[in-house]
User: Fold this.
Amino acid sequence: MKNILITGGAGFIGSHVVRLFVNKYPDYNIINLDKLTYAGNLANINDIENAPNYTFVKADICDFDKMLDIFAQYNIDGVIHLAAESHVDRSIKDPFTFAKTNVMGTLSLLQAAKHHWNGDFENRRFYHISTDEVYGSLEFDGTFFTEQTSYAPHSPYSASKASSDHFVRAFQDTFGLPTVITNCSNNYGPYQFPEKLIPLFINNIRHGKPLPVYGKGENVRDWLYVVDHARAIDVIFHNGRLGDTYNIGGFNEWTNIDLIKVIIATVDRLLGNPEGESLDLITYVTDRAGHDLRYAIDSNKLKNELGWEPSLQFEEGIQKTVAWYLENQKWMDDITSGEYETYYDSMYENR
Ligand code: NAD
Ligand code: TYD
Assistant:
């Protein structure tokens, strides 16, 4: 494969994947296709925008005719599909957009790939990036999501991702389209949109704003450093078995409240605040509707078959992440002013 279409490359995870592929594979042509929704930001990838093997295309994956044109124009032979609506709270407010982009958009890409490849699947691959949230929620019982766990999505976001996964498998089974799917746990790291827990809380601490903890803060998430996710995507894109699914996770479970205390301690330390100063910002608010209790990924299949493991310990990852957000305040301010501020205030007031 040489001409690789990466969708959603101006978003959080996509920007790390684009950066890795552009830098690591000078022989590939990387086409980054993104609609630049509120979550897409070209500043996330401005370090590689002039690379000779990189092209940016602003387009909506739901626009099927445009997808056909792009597959033909760039003679696409590999797809890494990350473009999606990705925030659970937004999906509760506006499920239609999630069904449209995540389901119909994925279908439009699958159909364009099928059309362009026209039965010749040699050295071609459609890699769909999904989430562990499709598996639903675990109890506090030490069990994990494996690749055999049945789908049981609870939020409109996870329902839309589950649906897109089913379409990908349907195209593999019905048309022989060469596909691979991965389901990853919560990512953290630089360039994450500050509606998600970690960047939101870092920014709020910096500005002395309340930290809205949903419910009792006892929900558990399994956190993976985003660059490790991008490394896994590289390995699976090149060596993952076609028609197969791989779980990606950090074996790194935290209750929200414990994680929040680590974030507070790290931000206070790096800003030179007295220890524990920002603990008072913790504000318990109404729980998220349908809030999944616990996610935990068993990524042993990926480790045993393809040799991937997370490279970074959480303590180091969170330290790097907090330092990055504090050092890149302009990036944060550019996003959190204007439209976002109004949206965030309305979400917060509605609780
Ligand atoms: P993000 O919201 O930061 O970025 C999404 C990107 O997709 C943005 O650049 C946006 O402009 C683009 N986009 C949205 N709708 C589009 C459309 N109709 N056409 C073209 N581009 C469009 O999301 P993220 O956190 O980087 O997640 C990327 C992918 O990884 C998603 O598929 C998500 O479900 C999955 N995922 C995310 C996590 C996580 O913790 N963030 C974990 C597992 C899986
Ligand atoms: P989030 O970053 O939205 O990811 P996801 O819902 O996909 O796991 O949220 C992570 C956890 O933090 C989740 O349990 C919800 C919780 N949370 C809060 O308690 N307060 C917040 O303001 C946000 C955004 C999330």
User: Anything to note?
Assistant: The longest strand covers residues 125-131. The chain is about 45% helix and 15% strand. The chain has a mean pLDDT of 96.
